């Protein structure tokens, strides 16, 4: 084992300051004894560069790199004359481009798979949900009446391909955008063409000496981000539902205690569901179960992490071992017999930790190889070839386990899988599925508004803490919370994603939850499934009574512990769609600049949403609730809510009497 020598400079911070996740705390402690460090320790010993944190530097050409002074932002310009606003806007745009590229490339992989399934070249996957196929086709104007699934699928594929390739016009899912919102986009020229074109144009416009007007750069940010949210991400979600099934709520186990000492433990971490779906087939092969038993194991135990885990927990009820900041920690258990990854959010640091515990780390995707990991390429045309090989390796690691095994015994239960389709059914019943009851409860004030709380965990803030405290505060104030990605795992570990958590909600929200039998915190899926939130918002507009555009709705969004460029793209597509979106941790621009004012104020006056920023959960909640109340007031709903509060007081007075 590679024992790390601590230099005097290395700070050893109490594990309680790193994370509120008890299992992760236990494993960081064990890791320290074993001489293994994690991203938590590295973050503590790596001061974030203050100039980079403000995006006040530019390296877009070699007359620079140029560094501006965030304390005196207008005191200096770059060698080419670029102002702080140009430099920050260009940097921001490239973050959006990278994040949008990640989601749209993921969506494109799903579309590639769909094409090969439809044309019969791939037989290991099939169309599982024909109802969803028809619904998606209809939503973009494809005729379904009297046609075979195959005919519809062929036409749907061709239409959706333009989400990526359209050189002009509007992407297909623009047809799902509420008319008033679409009108705003058209007015400002931000309706996306194909994502390839938008991302290419951002890279062009942010090259040295091209677009040097921060408002114009922001337009292209919006256009590109919308090509992610209403394009690539939405395609990823819809095609995954068609191929693997549309989620409906299941009770699942989360946390590191889902690992089993006496079983072969396999963890899948990453993002694209096809790898995991094939792995589910492989671990259920009777020959492998026999082989595992022959090796002395009771069976094969499959668990997910990050968004890969979020995809299958809602479709198959597969247990989830933890979110982004627990991926190194889980290896410290010594109980992981293999970790297989595909793309995104895979820390290079995993290689070293895996090596220390004799856990094979397997990369599977040609787009993501990691030095020191073993590559077993996954191919959609013969998926089981790779997943079978991974299972065999895992069994052999179990047989030869040398690492001392210590599994935190933490297991929590969550109920997740609230797809848009299920919410519709849950609220309206099978005969008249509808968002009407949701809108009615918002109008009558039982539900104050809806919040999306999503995104990563980040070692710059205490893991899970901001997610949990923020969500508690929101539901206490009758705000219904929708969740995706790593955030929902934080809440599941805290026990807030079960119907029983309704007792933590305010009186109005509690009443609705108890009537419907739903949790006050609804887990919708992975990060690409933020597109489900866009669809939910559009449906709220369509049903009526809450304004004409997404910007009118009493809703707000937040990624309180974000760390990735994908999150920036998501944040910006929510803003461009009309949602007030608050980010925590840090915001990569200088406060008090014109570009800051543009993102945080002016976009709203143009008919979009706007950005917000705060670090502390109470402060984030205050910003979001204030915004929701402002929207309620604009809709004339502030009176309604007061009446409910009076009712409650009355009821208490009666109770006391
Ligand atoms: Ni979203 Fe999913 Fe997690 Fe953040 Fe990473 S896994 S795509 S980026 S860290 S929520
Ligand atoms: Fe400096 Fe301008 Fe070159 Fe950026 S583009 S590095 S600001 S000279």
From TrEMBL:
Residues annotated as binding [4Fe-4S] cluster 1: 49, 57
Transmembrane segment boundaries: none
Single GO MF descriptor: anaerobic carbon-monoxide dehydrogenase activity
Residues annotated for [Ni-4Fe-4S] cluster binding in this entry: 271, 307, 345, 456, 486, 527
One biological process term in Gene Ontology: response to hydrogen peroxide
Pfam families, per database record: Prismane (PF03063)
Keyword 4Fe-4S assigned: yes
Keywords: 4Fe-4S, Iron, Iron-sulfur, Metal-binding, Nickel, Oxidoreductase
UniProt cofactor(s): [4Fe-4S] cluster
EC assignment: 1.2.7.4
Reactions mediated catalytically: CO + 2 oxidized [2Fe-2S]-[ferredoxin] + H2O = 2 reduced [2Fe-2S]-[ferredoxin] + CO2 + 2 H(+)
Keyword Zinc set for record: no
Highest taxon of the lineage: Bacteria
Binding site for [4Fe-4S] cluster 2: 58, 61, 66, 80
Protein name, as recorded: Carbon monoxide dehydrogenase
Organism: Desulfatitalea alkaliphila
Lineage start: Bacteria, Pseudomonadati, Thermodesulfobacteriota, Desulfobacteria, Desulfobacterales
């Amino acid at each position: 084992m590679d024992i790390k020598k601590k230099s005097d400079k290395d700070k050893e911070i109490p594990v309680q300051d790193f994370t509120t996740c008890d299992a992760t705390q236990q494993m960081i402690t064990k890791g320290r004894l074993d001489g293994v460090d994690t991203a938590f320790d590295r973050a503590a010993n790596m001061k974030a560069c203050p100039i980079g944190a403000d995006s006040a530097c530019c390296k877009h050409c070699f007359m620079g790199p140029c560094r501006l002074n965030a304390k005196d932002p207008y005191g200096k310009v770059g060698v080419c004359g670029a102002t702080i606003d140009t430099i920050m806007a260009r940097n921001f745009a490239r973050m959006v481009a990278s994040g949008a590229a990640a989601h749209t490339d993921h969506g494109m992989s799903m579309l590639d798979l769909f094409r090969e399934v439809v044309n019969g070249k791939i037989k290991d996957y099939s169309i599982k949900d024909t109802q969803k196929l028809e619904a998606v086709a209809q939503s973009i104007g494809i005729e379904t009446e009297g046609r075979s699934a195959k005919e519809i699928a062929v036409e749907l594929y061709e239409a959706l391909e333009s989400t990526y390739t359209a050189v002009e016009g509007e992407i297909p899912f623009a047809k799902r955008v509420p008319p008033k919102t679409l009108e705003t986009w058209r007015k400002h020229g931000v309706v996306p063409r194909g994502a390839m074109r938008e991302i290419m144009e951002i890279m062009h416009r942010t090259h040295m000496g091209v677009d040097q007007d921060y408002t114009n750069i922001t337009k292209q940010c919006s256009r590109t981000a919308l090509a992610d949210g209403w394009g690539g991400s939405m395609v990823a979600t819809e095609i995954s539902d068609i191929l693997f099934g549309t989620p409906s709520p299941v009770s699942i186990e989360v946390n590191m205690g889902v690992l089993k000492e006496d079983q072969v433990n396999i963890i899948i971490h990453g993002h694209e569901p096809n790898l995991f779906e094939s792995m589910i087939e492989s671990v259920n092969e009777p020959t492998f179960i026999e082989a595992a038993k022959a090796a002395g194991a009771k069976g094969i135990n499959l668990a997910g992490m990050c968004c890969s885990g979020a995809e299958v927990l809602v479709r198959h009820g597969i247990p989830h071992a933890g979110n982004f900041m627990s991926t190194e920690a889980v290896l410290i258990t010594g109980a992981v017999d293999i970790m297989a990854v595909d793309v995104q959010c895979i820390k290079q640091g995993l290689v070293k930790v895996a090596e220390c515990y004799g856990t094979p780390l397997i990369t599977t995707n040609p787009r993501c190889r990691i030095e020191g990991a073993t590559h077993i390429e996954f191919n959609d045309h013969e998926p089981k070839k790779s997943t079978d090989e991974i299972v065999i390796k895992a069994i052999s690691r179990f047989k030869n386990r040398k690492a001392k095994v210590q599994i935190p015994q933490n297991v929590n239960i969550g109920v997740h899988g609230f797809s848009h389709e299920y919410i519709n059914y849950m609220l309206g019943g099978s005969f008249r599925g509808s968002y009407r009851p949701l809108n009615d409860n918002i109008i009558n004030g039982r539900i104050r508004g809806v919040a999306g709380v999503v995104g990563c965990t980040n070692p710059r803030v205490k893991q899970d803490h901001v997610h949990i405290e923020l969500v508690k505060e929101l539901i206490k104030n009758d705000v219904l919370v929708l969740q995706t990605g790593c955030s929902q795992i934080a809440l599941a570990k805290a026990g807030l994603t079960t119907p029983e958590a309704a007792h933590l909600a305010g009186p109005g929200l509690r009443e609705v939850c108890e009537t419907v039998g739903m949790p006050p915190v609804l887990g919708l899926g992975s990060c690409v499934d933020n597109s489900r939130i866009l669809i939910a918002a559009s449906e709220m507009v369509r049903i009526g009574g809450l304004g004409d555009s997404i910007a009118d709705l009493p809703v707000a969004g937040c990624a309180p512990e974000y760390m990735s460029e994908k999150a920036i793209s998501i944040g910006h597509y929510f803003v461009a769609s009309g949602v007030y979106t608050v980010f925590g941790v840090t915001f990569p621009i200088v406060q008090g600049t014109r570009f800051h004012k543009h993102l945080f104020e002016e976009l709203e006056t143009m008919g979009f949403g706007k950005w917000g920023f705060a670090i502390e959960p109470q402060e984030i909640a205050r910003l979001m609730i204030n915004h929701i109340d402002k929207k309620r007031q604009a809709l004339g709903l502030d009176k309604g809510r007061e009446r409910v509060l009076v009712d409650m007081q009355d009821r208490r007075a009666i109770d006391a009497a």
